[in-house]
Amino acid sequence: MSRIGTERPVLVTGANGYVAGWLVRELLQRGYTVHAAVRDPDNKEKTAHLDKLAANGTGKIRYFEADLLNKGSYAEAMEGCELVFHTASPFTSDFDDAQKELIDPAVKGTANVLEQANQTPSVKRVVVTSSCAAIYTDATECAKAPTGMLTEDIWNSTASLEYQPYSYSKTLAEKKAWEIYEQQSRWELVVVNPSMVMGPALNPENTTSESFKILKQMGDGTLKFGVPNLGMGVVDVRDLGVIHFNAGTMHGVKGRHIASGSNTTLLEMARLIHGTFGKDYPVPKKPLPKWLLLLIGPMVNSALSRQFVSNNVNRSFRADNSKSKKALNAHYRPLQETMIDSFQALIGSGLIAK
With a threshold of 0.90, does the pTM exceed it? Predict the structure, then answer.
């Protein structure tokens, strides 16, 4: 299998992030020199796990200070790089100003990185971490898709600044990436569209991913009375690291790629954890009734609006991952393995206690 070689350094934006960590691990183990772009290279709490990876790999790591909203801040980190992975983007439901905290970092950050690629002659390929959220907003849209499931041909047309602004931010950011790509002809663009990312974090104490918040609530008693039976897709972060690596290094790769290992529900995920840990932790195994969520959801969590509950609770999620399997040699581990390993990692790090 022909790949882009290790002769030149590789840039990873947001290198200390949840997904990026496993990508960096893959790169270092394969002998690549990683230019790790982070907000604060001196914050060892957020980079120590990367240093450990470098010590155990054959590659090298160099840190660079960069900010999504600081134009030109990726210039030094990108210099001499043939391959750029843009993974940095906010993922949270806890925000006060969606435009400022979600939209601007996602869209302006993407433009900042890709416009820098235009100014860096060595760059040959850019891999952007988008999301299935750029394809759909609600699970009901799966059934309405031409094939009855989500494919790379579909774009999210229902999210907005007011409804599901995270999905809106990912849609706008990916569209911006394709817009900048189409205005030049020197470098290639490959996009990875993951569903909900689960799996053990390399730096759990400093991981802020929304999926970790959900997992923690399953174990700390917050959701002991039940969980919404939300239809969703899940991909293991370890598999996603390899998928990103392949997206960057395999020849002939192009376009969008859905990265989703399981079509599942939040309830099924909880039950898989309960089967192993239910005796010792208050992991839920019952669904919260939809009528109850419609009634009190908006009061408990602003994300649980009546529109969201209606369109996602007791609704099936279905996505076609065949392109990623064929084009990126993606292999997806069983959901049970992902959920058990995820929960065990939280226990091991002390984030969930008996």
Answer: yes
